[in-house]
Amino acid sequence: MATVDKKQPPNDANERSFVLDGETGPCQQGDDAPIKDTILPARLQDPFEGDECRGVQYRVMKWWCVCFLLSLPLMIAQSISLGVLSLPSSMATLGLIPGCILIIGMGILTTYTGYVLGQFKVRHPQIHNMSDAAEILFGPWGREIVMIAQIIFFIFLMGAHILTFSIMMNTLTDHAACTILFCLAGAVLSFILTLSRRLQEVSYLGIISSLSIFTAVMITVIAIGVEAPNPGDAHAIRHPTLLSGFSASLNVVISFAGHLAFFSFQAELAEPKDFTKALITLQITDTFLYLMAAVVIYYYAGASVRSPAFLSTSPTIAKVAFGTAIGTIVIAGVIIGHVGAKTIYVRLFRGTNRMSQRSLVSYGTWLVIVLSLWIIAWVIANAIPVFNDLLSLLAAAFGSWFSFGLEGLFWLHMNRGGYARSPRSIALTGLNVFLVLICCLMCGMGLWTTGRSISLSAKTAHKAFSCADNR
Predict the structure, then answer these.
(1) 230 vs 157: CA distance, rounded Å
(2) Helices (H), strands (E): how many in the chain?
(3) What whole-number distance in Å separates Cα of residue 235 and Cα of residue 243?
């Protein structure tokens, strides 16, 4: 009887060899060799396909890690303040009842849009970020436009956290140094924390950040409840102007709008379908925290509540709260910086083995991308006197589409030909058409309100690269 040599190499010519820590396995060839069948163009390949047998393994996160990551972008408002601590001032403009309805409504609506986004990713595994999804909807031009839009938005969000860091330092030190230096310190610290290529490591920082913001919010809520600077000054319903009312509403909407980073988080899950667990856990937690903080702080601080709400407490409590929130102020920006850098990195090396190599070229490229993004963010944050208003403008222009409009189009794309199949399908079709329409309204009105705000702020704004106190 003939014997079979088990060490004989496989007959399949397409099987490749891979060297990992001195061992050979069936995965890789040369540095730039395709990691999958080259019949598919790189942009249609899952960038992390087969990474379980390569140098850097990306798809290893558990769903509970993603909960902490998801909580960070959701806490970014369109101003430099943290979202959860800017909501009391929005409620002061709208009133308790409209404010509560809006927070709960946005919590439910963004949970649904996040779920649709997750299902679209499961349907199309090659998606890593919004530009990949845009190509499925709009073709190559859509991919390029959304790619540019999301990188710009990422950079401005990174700049927002640099400015928030400088506000924190000015508060803690009573403006003991030039604001430009505080911004530089924040940028350098954020750069160092963004050096890892995997979200798995960054997710551990997310745990620190979530505990940080929760503790800071509780300190603020308890302090304002005890100090009660203006008890009884809260109103059930207010009558704001169109400009102020829409600006306050947009602030609530953007506080829930972290969808831009969701695809990237889901792409590095060990089991992508577990994204729904993380999303629901996050939305329930954040909606409760937003509602509790906004109602309690507004009720006791009254119409004079400031944004962020830290500043409505005594100077000592404000310093304690800001010092406690440093984890979120820094790490939330790090998450945004990581996702932005990963978007560019995947675009450069998708479909090649450099994605996962532990080599000088691979890691050097990552280092250059991260350094470049933080330098640009620091320059823009210091060079634009009306930075906060310009960030609001970008949030209105891009955030509305990333969190509502595109999700409606994702559902319509996945259910083509079945819009009127049943009463449920008709209702869902109406809901997703509504999402697209409400996105257009938010985008148009948001551009108008922030445009007006920019024209007003430009008259009193600091000069570019100013050392002045920015509290």
Answers:
(1) 33
(2) 17, 2
(3) 19
Least confident window among 37-51, 68-82, 389-403, 435-449: 68-82
| Cα–Cα distances in angstroms (integers) from residue 381 to residues 165, 331, 463, 471, in the given order | 12, 18, 12, 15
b or e along 327-346 (b: 16 or more beta carbons within 10 Å of the residue's beta carbon)?
bbbbbbbbbbbbbbbbbbbb
Check if the beta carbon of residue 229 is closer than 8 Å to that of residue 348: no
Say what the pTM is: 0.83
Is the Cβ–Cβ distance between 407 and 438 less than 8 Å?
A: no
Tell me how far apart the alpha carbons of residues 298 and 96 are, in angstroms, rounded to a whole number. 8
Give the model's pLDDT for residue 65. 57
pLDDT tens for each residue of 8-51: 444 333 333 333 333 334 444 444 444 444 445 666 676 766 55
Backbone angles phi and psi of 61, in degrees to 5: -75, 145
Query: For the chain, what is the radius of gyration of the CA atoms?
Result: 24
Q: For residue 153, give the DSSP letter.
A: H
Coil, strand or helix at 83: helix
Please tell me the least confidently modeled range out of 104-108, 145-149, 249-253. 249-253
On whether the CB atoms of residues 105 and 99 are closer than 8 A, the answer is no
Q: Could you say which DSSP state residue 64 is in?
A: H
Residues 6+ apart with CB under 8 A from 166: 179, 182, 183, 186, 470
pLDDT in tens, 371-385: 999 999 999 989 887
d(Cα 337, Cα 154) in Å, to the nearest integer?
A: 7
Cβ atoms of 275 and 66 within 8 Å: the answer is: yes
Query: Within 13 Å of residue 364, how many CA atoms lie on the same side as its CB?
Result: 3
Tokens representing residue 425 in the block:
């399908």
Q: What is the dihedral of CA 143, 145, 146, 149, to 10 degrees?
A: 150
Peptide bond into 240 cis (omega under 30): no
Instruction: Summarize pLDDT for 16-26 with one digit per residue, the tens.
Output: 333 333 333 44
Per-residue pLDDT for 172 more than 60? yes
CB count in 10 Å sphere of residue 225 = 14
* Three-class secondary structure of residue 19 per DSSP: strand
33-67 burial string, b = 16+ CB within 10 Å, else e? ebbeeeeeebbbbbbbebbeebbbebbbbebebbb
* Strands (E) located in 369-417: none
pLDDT at 74 over 60: no
